[in-house]
């Protein structure tokens, strides 16, 4: 049986995947502190980084690193490996986290004066954690099968 030779793209992808696991840990810390908005945002971010890591390895293109949406990343991944369709329900993380970037006028003055309401539903955060876990476990199994 031939031994797998680690390539630069594999090593870089594994570094990126480690970053995803760190992001998940940060989400857990925010959840413990009851900062639900930050927890959910970090769970979504962990899933994005994990998907970016694997796709970077498979496609060997840094273009994938600009994708910030679970939906975009999974749709791209399905074109690479059809079994990614099995985690398509995790696309809901994009809606759950609903990261809002304030709209700015030409003079960098906020158009919307009202602050965006924070996330205060622990059930949404739990669902976000579950979806993020599904993605990270799936990607971990993908990397495990390479070794």
How many distinct beta strands?
A: 0
Anisotropy-based shape: globular
Q: State the low-pLDDT regions, or none.
A: 100-116
* Tally of helical runs: 5
Structural class: mainly alpha
Mean pLDDT: 83
Largest sheet: none
Question: C-alpha Rg, in Å?
Answer: 17 Å
- Helical proportion, percent range: 55-70%
**Estimated share of beta-strand residues:** under 5%
Distance between the termini: 12 Å
Note the run of SSEs as H and E: HHHHH
Features of the shown structure:
single chain; 147 residues; mainly alpha; globular
Describe the protein in words.
The chain is 62% helix and 0% strand. The protein has helices at residues 8-32, 36-59, 70-80, 92-97, 122-146. The longest helix is centred in the N-terminal third of the chain and has 25 residues, at 8-32. It starts with 7 loop residues before the first helix and ends with a helix.
Q: What does the secondary structure layout of this molecule look like, with pairings?
A:
Layout: H1 8-32, H2 36-59, H3 70-80, H4 92-97, H5 122-146
Helix pairs in contact: 1-2, 1-5, 2-3, 2-5
């Amino acid at each position: 049986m031939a031994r797998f030779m680690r390539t630069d793209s594999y090593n870089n992808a594994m570094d990126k995947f480690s970053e995803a696991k760190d992001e998940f840990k940060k989400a857990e810390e925010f959840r413990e502190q009851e900062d639900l908005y930050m927890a959910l945002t970090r769970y979504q971010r962990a899933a994005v980084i994990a998907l970016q890591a694997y796709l970077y390895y498979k496609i060997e293109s840094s273009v994938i690193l600009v994708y910030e949406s679970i939906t975009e990343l999974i749709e791209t991944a399905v074109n690479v490996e059809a079994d990614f369709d099995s985690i398509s329900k995790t696309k809901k993380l994009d809606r759950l986290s609903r990261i809002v970037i304030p709209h700015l006028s030409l003079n960098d003055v906020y158009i919307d004066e009202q602050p965006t309401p924070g996330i205060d539903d622990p059930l949404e955060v739990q669902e976000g954690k579950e979806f993020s876990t599904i993605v990270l476990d799936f990607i971990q199994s993908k990397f495990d099968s390479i070794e």
